[in-house]
Design goal:
The chain has helices at residues 9-38, 43-62, 73-89, 112-129, 138-158, 162-178, 183-202, 205-215, 226-237, 263-296, 300-324, 342-360; strands at 103-105, 108-110. By secondary structure, it is mainly alpha-helical. It has one domain (9-360). A two-stranded antiparallel sheet has the order 1-2.
Amino acid sequence: MAKRVSVDKWLFTVTLLLVFIGLVMVFSASAVMAKERFGSPYGFLVRQMAWAVAGIAFMIVIMNVDYKNFRRPTVVFSFLGITSLLLIVVFLFRDSHNTHRWIKFAGLSFQPSEVAKPTLILYLAYFLESRWQQITDVKNVLIPAVAPTLLFALLIVKEPDLGTALACVAISTAVLFVAGMNMKYLWYGLAASVLPLYFLIVRVPWRWARMQAFLDPFKDPQGKGFHIIQSMIAVSTGGLTGLGLMEGKQKLFYLPEPHTDFIFAVTAEELGLWGSLLMVGLFGIFLYRGIRTALRTGDIFGKFLATGITAMVVVQALFNISVVLALVPAKGIPLPFISYGGSSLFITLASVGVLLNISQQAE
C-alpha cells in the first residue's frame, strides 16, 4: 500500500537548478536585444523571473495536493473541454508572424498548445487506468485513447506548429507504451502518418525549405542554411570551458531567437562542453527520478501521470537540443525550464508539482 514519504529532493532540486540556470541564460542571451527593444537589458529577465516565481510557488502548492483529486471525471473532462476551446479560440486572435499560437489579453500572452500536453497526459492516465489490461481492444480502448491526441494535434498543426503537435504525439505514445500497447500499432501509426507528413512538409514551401536547409545548410549559407550554420558555429566555438558568461558572439543578431529556441547554442558557446553536459546531465537526472517515481508508484493512475509528465519534459528537451545540434530540422519547441516563455515555464512547473506529489506517495 502506498505511504506518504518526503518529497523527492533530487527531483525538486534539479528542477530549481534548471530554472535558475534558465534565468541566467535568458539574461545572457537577451540582454542586448532587450536593451534595443525595451531600453533596459533586464526586460526579458524580469518577465521570465516573474513567471518563474509564480510557477515555483504554484508547483509547491500543487505538490501538496493529492494527485488523486485529478482523477475525477469532472476535472478530466473540464480540462479536455477548456483546452479544446482554447485551441479553437486562438484562431480568433490576430496572427503573429503568420501563426495563430497566442491568446493575448491585458498585456499578457498565453500559448494554448502548452496546456494541451498536460491535458492529454491527464486524460490518458484517467482513461487507461481501468482499461490498460484491454489495451489490445482497438475499437473500445485504443481508438478512444488516442482520439484527443489526434484532435489536439490537428488543431495545433493548423496554427501552424508541427513541432508541438509531434511532441504531443510522442508524449502520448510514451504513456501508451507503458500501458502495454503492442508496438505493431506504433508502426501502423507511423505508416499512416507518411502521407499527411508528406503534404505537411514537402508540399508546404517554407517547411520544405527548412528541410532542405537541414539536409545541406551550406548549399545556401547566407539564406536558408544561415541559422543552422550559426547554431553550429556557436556550439563549436565554445570549446571545453566556453567563452565565458555574457561573452558569446552568435547571440548578437546571428542566432534566431537566442533566448528561446536556440538558447542551448548560447549555453554551449558561453559555458562550453562542460556547461552543456551539466545541463544535459540535469535533464538525465530528471528522467531517472521521473522513471523511478513511475516504477515505485503502485497506483496505475499515478504511474501513467508520472510517465507522461517525465516524457513531456524530456521529449521537449531532446527535440530542442537536437535542433541546436542540427540532428533534426528546426522546430519551435522550447527547452523546458531554460527557454524564455512564461506559459511554457509556468505549466511545466505546475506539472512537476503533480510529479512531486506522486513521488511522496510511492511505495
